[in-house]
């Protein structure tokens, strides 16, 4: 297990699919709104283009992922279903039926994160063990929850001394601790708060879970053509009417200051988190389509 | 059922609500919006407490508090001249973070019959398990804390930021869970509070398909439940640059390019990019504008820096209240 602090990997951008898909299970994690689902779709699509048998796993029950990667196999895992399946497979079919009927399974699933998470991770482990896939990309939970999600196994292993639950927890821990089988890809935006959160999460995941971190994917990076500096811009608008000139200068100033903030945050992320970064360029849309995913997959495949 | 057919202004909502619930998917700026509403309420003389349930401690970030917020409400120095110069009308801003285990223990202490019972329950391993487990969803705790703060004389407005949730309505459904645990009476009180006319719901989104879909869905549920949407806030919207279209900017860029005026061409290309984004965003926002009502929807522009301090919150408050935020107009 490589320590973050001692990592010698240069934190330069490295547009490589290999580093993003270096384990059989990739859990994509990050704060809400940073684009976990986009990154999940991009990694899965790129790996599929590279000839891998890919399974995409989503945990939130929304159709977004399936719409972004229409050609890939997408499996929705819900905690109550996974628990039900687990009970059936372990000879508790009658209990499972009763629990489902009384709604207790839903209560357990939504109210007990430890059990909820361990059952979901157990299902993922089972899929990984099946050998049916070269790569399983999991659209993981939000950053705060990612830590509890991934620490569930250690928590249960501490609490339960024996039996099927303990065995399940041990097997999940084995998966999480094996860098060849599982790695976590964190997603950030090039802004202050998301960068802070990704740094905190990275250290917490390493300390509390001991899971291998892949590169940090920074989503929605403005890589548009460079703008003239303020002097050049003023000279360029000198002959225009005041209103038009002001509009052009304001728009340029706005874009330049956003870009300055982005590059400062990327530099800070590199300085504070010594793991490679992969940048996904901004697309000029308010919602991505499969065509955008294809473009972005090209960026991480060849860039 | 509350009569919500009248259309209070945003200022009325701030002045007359006793509870404001901010809802929306994760990462859309719910916590920031809640903080801004609390800040503006305090500026207008109210004693507001903002409760955040977000485990990422973003409210602490937004309010510039080092080390995060405590489980007890903390007074925030809001640093606005209007408040400091006029102590007669001075309001207060408080903030707190939900501590779920402590909230649950408090609940037991208030409802148990005697010390011995309290001790027995609190030390029971199964209880500890359930208390810890329920803290995972937190909607339950939010409802309980909301009720408590509502009855607290120190505050006349409680602003709640609901957690990012797979089922955003867990917050409303939480009292149902409460009922199952046996605290029936409390559940009824919480339901009554959530449905009271003084409780306002503000739906928060960003101008992206997924968060708008979620906001629209949530607004529909609120309408269905007879509660209604008091307002909608779309954070991080592209600001408008001039009145023209992206297409006209692109054709200006093309003409400048043809004259080999490289600088002017790139300035127009930039405007075309920014307008393209804004046009996409206005299309995406349209369904939310429809369900919330255009006059109840506010766009907060994307700022040239991240909002994580009081100045940033005041800037947003300015966009939401003082100058009047840009009204959404899909024909623009």
Note down, in words, how this protein is organized:
The complex is a heterodimer of chains A (about 300) and B (about 325). In chain A, strands 1, 2, 3, 4, 5, 6, 7 and 8 form an eight-stranded parallel β-sheet that branches. Chain A has about 300 residues and is of the alpha/beta class. Chain A starts with 16 loop residues before the first helix and ends with a helix. Chain A is elongated, with a radius of gyration of 22 Å. The relative contact order of chain A is 0.19. Chain A has 13 helices and eight strands. Chain A has one domain: P-loop containing nucleotide triphosphate hydrolases (Rossmann fold). The longest helix of chain B has about 30 residues, at about 260-290. Mean pLDDT of chain B is about 75; it is low at about 1-5, about 130-135, about 165-170 and about 325-330. Chain B contains 14 helices and eight strands. By secondary structure, chain B is an alpha/beta fold. In chain B, strands 3-4-2-5-1-6-7-8 form an eight-stranded mixed β-sheet, sandwiched between helices. At the A-B interface, α6, α7, α8, α10 and α11 of A face α7, α9, α11 and α13 of B.
Chart the SSEs and their pairings:
The complex is a heterodimer of chains A (303) and B (332).
Chain A: H1 17-20, E1 25-29, H2 36-49, E2 54-58, H3 64-68, E3 73-76, H4 79-89, H5 93-102, H6 104-111, H7 113-129, E4 135-139, H8 143-159, H9 164-177, E5 182-188, H10 192-209, E6 212-213, E7 216-221, H11 230-236, H12 242-272, E8 277-281, H13 290-302
Chain B: H1 10-16, E1 19-23, H2 30-43, E2 47-52, H3 58-62, E3 74-76, H4 81-85, E4 92-97, H5 100-111, H6 115-123, H7 125-134, H8 139-150, E5 157-161, H9 170-180, H10 184-195, E6 199-205, H11 209-224, E7 231-237, H12 246-258, H13 262-292, E8 297-301, H14 310-322
Parallel strand pairs in B: 1-5, 1-6, 2-4, 2-5, 6-7, 7-8
Antiparallel strand pairs in B: 3-4
Helix pairs in contact in B: 2-14, 8-9, 8-10, 9-10, 11-13, 12-13
